[in-house]
Amino acid sequence: MSTTLSTPAHAPDDAPAPGGVRAPDARGTYVVRTLGCQMNAHDSEHMAGLLETAGYVPASAQDAAAWQADVVVINTCAVRENASTRLYGNLGQLAGIKRGRPGMQIAVGGCLAQKDRAGIVEKAPWVDVVFGTHNLDALPVLLERARHNARAEVEIAESLQVFPSTLPTRRESVYAGWVSISVGCNNTCTFCIVPHLRGKERDRRPGDVLAEVEALVAEGAVEVTLLGQNVNSYGVGFGDRAAFGKLLRAVGAIPGLERVRFTSPHPASFTDDVIEAMAQTPTVMPSLHMPLQSGSDRILRAMRRSYRSERFLGILDRVRAAIPDAAITSDVIVGFPGETEEDFAETLRVVEQARFSSAFTFLYSPRPGTPAADLPDQVPADVVQERYERLVALQERISTQENERQVGRVVEVLVAEGEGRKDGATQRISGRAADNRLVHLALPPHVVAAATADATDQRLAADLDPALPRPGDLVTVRVTHGAPHHLVADSALAGGPYQVRRTRAGDAWARSRGADDGHGHAHGEPPTAGPVTLGMPTRRA
Questions:
Q1: Which helix or strand (DSSP H or E) is residue 81 part of?
Q2: Which amino acids are annotated as binding site for [4Fe-4S] cluster, given as ranges?
Q3: Where is this region: Disordered (predicted)?
């Protein structure tokens, strides 16, 4: 069932009306802006794929940064309290831009759109399209309808219409990609609105998942991350509770794939067969994101988190026994209703014992529509803030200590595009180690200038310097410094380990820019503007 509303535009005098005139020979440019988690980011790849299939082209990086496009899509999140503020702040900025750009269309999708529905158009009448989490496929049609009718179109499906992974997908990376193995969630955590907005869990068949991974690898990817709201409960929908471990092994065995990750598991569903699959499959990386949320058993019960702190710590112990170098990260909420100082002390105890390499820490914010929003004993904001600051200080200390322990280790880094904001100033490049730690690494002195001043040109040169890696290539270096949020590997400056391994992913990155890939492939191949667009994966025989 879906809700469809065609809303006449009641824009204020200084705001443009929805819809507009389009030149008949072009669809125009688009930009998709993502607010939220990896699932949202992957949904945005589907939105981009749909728009390109409909004939739109991506706006340039400069235009996208300034919201200068014929179609602007904001893919929203509803998990945190400030999600609405962020959305309407962006929409306010877009109103002024739209006044000076006749025919521009604005669409709002994602979790907040699913939640607020027509209320978005009521607050921002210059929005043309609102669509939900269950009907991503409707985006191009709704844009055309809004343009034709010169009024806003709001369409919210109440259940999943098309499995997102069957939609066209414009991948933002040619060397790494996300693959959804399920959508929705069957848990009933009292603080979380996701099940209400994304629905009950639906699992993809293993053959479909493997086909999508194979398609990514064929395009040059060397890393995939399996996604699900509760990724390790995969298989419940088709009656195989051991399916996730089997899937990890099967994905990890795909030829050409070098790194497999997954997020996010639920501690209550985390079983030893998954640990065995991680330990026994060389391509499954030694990293694990395991949400704690609270260290207090009393608060975990109030959250309806069906595990207790000792079970949580026991999982970490077993993971580290099987995978000694595993880096474990987590999520922690501070200030859940009724949290006492004793409860918070338990969280500090568990965090200290867990030794997370990093953690996403959140101040609790009530989300309308969740059971926790109506609980008594909401914790005063100043108390929550003070506890939050103590937790952050503890985790910063632990992260620093854990990263300092990495000094001297030799690691292989998958070079990324744009991970390090200070790379230009420090003359380093950045990427991720196998355990997913961010590594900023120095280049040998003779290639530093090439990697900073004109990096793209140099990395596309026919006579590519063998010491200059491209995004998607792998570099072996020694860690020389550990900081709270990253590692530094300057071994190349002192004659230490530094070895570049060219990969198919690096070749794909070069080809995506229409250049020689360093292996003799001719210049002049049509560029694909960076990302890879994939259609529906085919089922394996």
A1: none
A2: 37, 77, 111, 185, 189, 192
A3: 1-25, 509-541
